Amino acid sequence: MRKLRSAVFFAALLLASPSYAARCGGDFNSFVAAMSAEAQAAGVSPAVISQALGGVTQDPAVLSFDRRQRGTFNKTFEQYVSTRVGPGRINIGRQMLQRHAALLSRIEKRFGVPPQIIVAIWGLESDYGKGDIGKMPVVRTLATMAHDCRRTELFQGELLAALKIVQRGDLPLRDLIGAFAGEIGQTQFLPSSYIKYGVDFDGNGHVDLRHSIPDVLASTANLLHVSGFKNGAPYGEGTANFEAMREWNRATIYRKTIAYFADRLVGQ
């Protein structure tokens, strides 16, 4: 599952990112101090910065894992889908479609994304919230990745976004845990996507992508909606909706798996 999740962040690599002042490499504490200044300039409170970055250390396991994540999708579609979409996952997905039918209907009306696409993504990313959604402290993970010079601007931006999630009160720092590239929640949003696409669909005043199923599913639909997904149109390879799913994951094999899974959920 982690290999699949790690592919999500590759979508961000080709997106434009602003320039940040913190210099990668060198002394880690100096880097964190520079990032703290960046965060305060971006409107994050000194209290949140101190709580999140005070005493933070590097995590060598994060860098080791990242360096192994090359060629994740090196299987054929048939090989890959056979490991991701089996009878058990399909059956549970159909149960989720029924259990959350009213919620998914409201989401479809608002965002124009069919329930089977949302549930397919939910199933692939976290087994409908029951699977492993990561146990890594997100701030430590992102600080480690940002200090590494290979993609420092990307991960500096994600680190600032993670601090803003705490600043907004969406998740407390103790609950800001995720996967090996900082992905958060039941459908594995990077912090920048959390900020950009997150929806408070349960109406409690917070976007909680770890615990709130309404927020999780609506935010997933919102990402696709903003990316141009059109309801009622086909979503298989070669279609406009298939291209709209690039914002979710640029890997063709993964998007084909979403489409295949969605079709199985509705008996096609």
TrEMBL record:
Which domain of life does this protein belong to? Bacteria
A Pfam family matched in the record: SLT_2
Name the Gene Ontology biological process terms.
peptidoglycan catabolic process
SUPFAM superfamilies with a match to the protein in the record: Lysozyme-like
Q: Does the keyword Signal apply?
A: yes
- Keyword RNA-binding present in the record's keywords: the answer is no
Keyword list (alphabetical) reads: Signal
- Signal peptide (residue range): 1-21
**GO MF, one annotated term:** peptidoglycan lytic transglycosylase activity
- Domain spans labelled Transglycosylase SLT: 28-236
Record-linked NCBIfam families? MltB_2
Protein name in the entry: Lytic murein transglycosylase
